[in-house]
Specification:
heterodimer, A: alpha/beta, Aspartate Aminotransferase, domain 2, 2 domains, 7-stranded mixed beta sheet, 40% helix, 17% strand, B: alpha+beta, Sufe protein. Chain: A, 4-stranded antiparallel beta sheet, 5 helices, 4 strands, globular
């Protein structure tokens, strides 16, 4: 499939902004949705809007089926062993919070340690900090080097007999480097420590096989992988999920309820209290189908690599530009580029680019510790999706030059 | 349409560059305005009952916007500032075209100016 053909599946891409063609380069925050996802949302909303898992009437049956089919789609997409290991959440943030709370309740006590890395999104820092505060545990940090690559060699020394869990991002939302999570899981497992992988970006840009990675938890959001917002998945190995208490109490997560005590439902419903975003979750089926189709398409893949190489070359050859996330092996880099321009503020650049029709991200990108690490107040980020063309990359580079000229 | 924006931004950039030197020592947390993607510092002094504002930002377009506000409000008394309806933001045609985060920044700047005026009036 050509990129031009692919674009036709995504209605939002043909809109105009300020009278100009939209060039959407903020995909790492939210990606655009294909027609199939929009249709599925509409289908559920029009035809099968009924509470899942509860009633016996037809509409409830249809809604439940769509929801459970999406669970199977998510299981298959990441090759989890069983459906019960797939918990629906409102996003990666909720998934990580669930683990930080429930795992913390079960396995963390005063003086224990939790390890995160320097390149985490706030979503994979703050929940652990909160848990550490509650439990009197200590948060330790695995640093990155100047290229933005994790200093994985230091991990073994950082993990002690008090380390209860290691939380690491598969791909940083700032650096765009694929972290060696399989190796990290190996190092941790040798010491009996489980690993949570924040897959918010990883799920979009790599073929994830949780059995091969051997991670204990994998969290991702729907809205970054073409599904409806407010959807997400927590994968967890059954033995951990079984041993963790529920995060929230409510309807549908129970076995029996008496005022003298309550038993909980089996997995995964134990972690899905209250009425779920079933119409949203159902869109994961067409969204993951689209993601798989794009990942398997050699023409699309080739374009992505060409865009990445072009951007790396252009950004790397301008002495005014500092690119953050520059791995030794280019194949470890996804088409996501955070950088700063000497003498031009990221917010000014983003404002001017917006008026040229280009949507980019500017600021701290929910990763303040990483901003501090590189000594900047913020960065400009452009993140490409499979539906972005080489022409768009070239247009961006031209407009960036023009914006910089205005500011310096 | 872009050219209109280009003109607007070029004007703001000029204004931003013309804003008076703001001393590093006044870039305190107390003077820092929250709610902006960029950092804005707003300082003031009172002379003959008039409030004189000085400001800085690390982003030049933001600096231009705040310099517009300073042109309007610096050298006024506290009651003058408090009785103003602040519709100027709409009149300069910026708010509706700025992103919500950006508009919030503008709103934050105005709140801070009001806050300072209210504090001074309360002290009188």
């Amino acid at each position: 499939m050509t990129v031009e053909n692919l674009r036709e599946y995504f209605p939002a891409l043909s809109r105009k902004v300020y009278g100009k063609e939209l060039v959407y380069l903020d995909n790492a925050a939210t990606s655009q949705r294909p027609r199939t996802v929009i249709d599925e949302w509409e289908r559920i909303t029009i035809q099968s809007n009924a509470n899942i898992h509860r009633a016996v009437h037809l509409m409830a049956e249809e809604a439940t089926q769509a929801y459970e089919q999406a669970r199977e789609a998510a299981r298959a997409y990441i090759n989890a062993r069983e459906r019960e290991e797939i918990v629906f959440t409102s996003g990666a943030t909720a998934a990580i919070n669930l683990v930080a709370f429930s795992f913390g309740e079960a396995f963390v006590s005063a003086g224990d340690e939790v390890v995160v890395t320097e390149c985490e999104h706030h979503s994979n820092i703050v929940p652990w900090q909160m848990m550490c505060l509650r439990k009197g545990a200590v948060l330790k940090v695995l640093p990155v080097d100047d290229r933005g690559e994790l200093k994985t060699d230091m991990l073994e020394g950082l993990c002690t007999e008090r380390t209860r869990i290691v939380a690491v991002t598969h791909i940083s939302n700032v650096l765009g480097i694929v972290n060696p999570v399989k190796r990290i899981a190996g190092i941790c497992h040798a010491k009996g420590i489980p690993v949570l992988v924040d897959g918010a970006q990883g799920i979009v840009h790599s073929a994830v096989d949780v059995q091969d990675l051997d991670c204990d938890f994998y969290a991702f959001s729907g809205h970054k992988i073409y599904a409806a917002p407010g959807t997400g998945v927590l994968y967890g190995k059954r033995r951990w999920l079984d041993a963790m208490p529920p995060y929230m109490g409510g309807g549908e997560m129970v076995g029996t309820v008496r005022f003298t005590g309550t038993t909980y439902a089996p997995l995964p419903l134990k972690f899905e209290a209250g009425t779920q975003n079933f119409a949203g979750a159902a869109t994961l089926s067409p969204a993951l189908a689209m993601a798989a189709q794009m990942m398997d398409d050699s023409q699309i893949g080739e374009n992505q690599r060409a865009v990445r190489d072009y951007m790396m070359d252009v950004l790397g050859s301008d002495s005014r530009i500092t690119l953050y996330g520059n791995p030794v092996d280019r194949e470890e880099k996804i088409p996501l580029f955070s950088f700063s321009v000497k003498g031009a503020h990221h917010e000014d650049l983003a404002l001017i680019l917006d008026k040229m029709g280009i949507a980019v991200r500017s600021g701290q990108m929910c990763a303040e510790p990483l901003m501090d690490r590189f000594g900047v107040s913020g960065m400009l980020r452009v993140s490409f999706a499979p539906y972005n063309t080489m022409q768009e990359a070239e247009y961006f580079v031209k407009c960036l030059g023009r914006a910089v000229d205005m500011l310096i | 349409m872009f050219d209109e924006w280009l003109d607007k931004y070029e004007y703001l950039i000029e204004l931003g560059k013309s804003l008076k030197d703001y001393p590093e020592s006044s870039k305190t947390d107390e003077n820092l305005i929250k709610g902006c993607q960029s950092r804005v510092w707003l300082d003031y002094k009172v002379e003959d009952g008039k409030i004189l504002f000085n400001a800085d930002s690390d982003a030049i377009i933001t600096k231009g916007i705040i310099s517009l506000l300073i042109r309007i409000y610096s050298g006024r008394t506290a009651p003058e500032i408090l009785s103003s309806d602040f519709s100027v933001v709409d009149r300069i045609g910026l708010k509706e075209n700025l992103s919500p985060t950006r508009a919030n920044g503008l709103v934050s700047m105005i709140s801070k100016i009001r806050e300072i005026a209210a504090e001074i009036e309360g002290a009188d």
